[in-house]
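The methods section describes the discrete structure representation at length, but only in general terms. The central task, working out the structure tokens from the amino acid sequence alone, is never made concrete. Nothing conveys this as quickly as seeing an actual entry. For illustration, here is how one protein appears when written out as sequence plus structure tokens:
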Amino acid sequence: MGHGKETVRVITRVGYKSRTMIRLASKLPVAKSVICKVLGESSLGISSIPVNKDLEIPGDIPVPFLLLEHFIDISPRHVITNSCMCRRENGCTDYDPEIGCLFLGEGARQIEDTVGRHVQKEEALDYAKRAVDSGLIPNIGKVRFDAIVLGVKEHNRLMTVCFCCPCCCIGREFAYIPRKARDGIVKLRGVTVEVTGDCSACGKCVDACPMNQIKIVNGRARIGEECKGCGRCVATCPFGSITIAMDDPSYFDEAVKRLSPLVSS
């Protein structure tokens, strides 16, 4: 079986409180090697699902949400954690700390009941919709660190669905880890994020970007090459000056092929 509630709480609390140490340690060769092994060892990677009005289809369902819905549907196991440790540790008042991660796949069987509740796919889907409706951005993929924290041995059969807020997510530290590990976070193919001519250079998108990929250059926001397509900048811009689009309709099939091994029974 996996780790109990108290063990998970202690490990995640230490990890969250050590965010500054992550930045410092990432500059050391030995630490870089460890970070790359834990976060960047898999070609499966992690992908943000940008939920935004520009990506809707008839019926007002964001296209990328269909991807998450697919994985929930085919997964043999669904576990909803009791809360979001990041928001709890940070004392978040902007987003509900009771909305934690969702874990899918056969590996989720090993998650202790004290950490989260095992639910049917209908409840898991309703939970995901609630998280998205509250403004949280889903990130899906294989996160070896999560498996270590939870005590899940079958890490190759565990999908993490983390519902991240722009203020508390420990993923913001990924901008400071080695490039090799950062490359484990993979933008969904076909997603493009662009700045229009209406940009006022207010800088709110700069603060919102978890990967530090936006800078103000010559009075206008400029998006860097490592943009992961999470869509937080789009949601943050008060003038609607940043757009997100899905140019490649085959992204769905590509993402399903890449990530399905984590949740297939």
